[in-house]
Amino acid sequence: MHEWLQTPPGRYLLAWERAQFDQAVSDIFGYHALQLGLPEVDALAANRMPHRWLGLRDLEPPPPPGARRPALLADYSALPFDAASLDLVVLPHTLELSHDPHATLREVERVLVPEGRVVITCLNPASLWGLRQRRAHLYRKLGFGQLFLPDAGDFIGYRRLRDWLRLLNFEVETGNFGCWRPALTTEHWLDRFDWMDRLGHRWWPILGAVYFIVATKRVRGIKLVGKLWKPPKAIATAPVPLPNRRPQPEMTQETL
After folding, report:
1. Quick check: is 255 in a domain?
2. In which residue ranges of the chain is pLDDT below 50?
3. Whose CA is closest to 58, among 46, 44, 75, 43?
């Protein structure tokens, strides 16, 4: 994956993702933010939280020159943070490259505070890039051909990921697609199809090569109603004297 990001389509992908990250995280406030994986892009560069960290699974290969230095090495499915301690977690292609994306997402839900945000990017299998990758896999089984995307991780569909987030009580705020140019390997040919980005955003938005999701962790509260939490008011039974009222004479036989 790290080598592929240095190719023309990889640089094209990173340029789009940097713009999306800068726009999404600039208005997310709090104290602690964490990026997991992909040191090639500083996803927290536009964020203004006082504590921002980069976490990696290992240092092989080492981060490229000029990248943010990692603050910790950890298994993404067992993060060294207390529950409800982070305000923002960014996952740039982390779920695709994770050995257990379900466990990674559950761990992110654990460490996020209520109303905390998670920002996710993934390659879209329903795109021209995904189609070429599946066709290349078929050709390799026949003994020829070359993969377009790196042979690491698995595709995660957009609707599939939204279902995972919904099961973990995340509410998806935004979902964007990008990179509609064909699966070409040279910068010259990629630039010749730059017009597809303008048309793709309008006419076939869900067919972009990458999608971008911002979701918020929701914690449902409990409100007891009725007699379970509030006892009914007792009715007063003691006699109450009425002021400014003269006592009535008693009825006797003489008066009758």
Report:
1. no
2. 256
3. 75
Nearest-angstrom CA–CA distance, 99 and 121? 17
Whole-angstrom Cα distance, residue 83 to residue 200?
A: 41
Q: What helix, strand, coil percent values describe the chain, rounded to 5?
A: 30, 20, 50
β strands within the chain, DSSP E: 32-36, 51-56, 72-73, 86-92, 112-123, 170-178, 210-217
Among residues of the chain, what percentage have pLDDT more than 90? 46
User: Is the dihedral angle over the CA atoms 146, 210, 90, 156 positive or is it negative?
Assistant: negative
pLDDT in tens, 108-133: 999 999 999 999 999 999 888 888 88
Number of domains in the chain: 1
Is the sign of the CA dihedral 147, 161, 38, 62 positive or negative?
Answer: negative
CA distance readout (Å), 217 to 26, 50, 82:
18, 21, 16
Instruction: Say if 191 falls within a structural domain.
Output: yes
Which structure tokens are listed for 128?
């021209």
pTM (2 d.p.):
0.81
Let me know how long the chain is: 256
> Please, are residues 175 and 94 in contact by the beta-carbon 8 Å criterion?
no
The range of the structural domain enclosing residue 96 comes to 4-217
- CATH number of the domain where residue 104 is located: 3.40.50.150
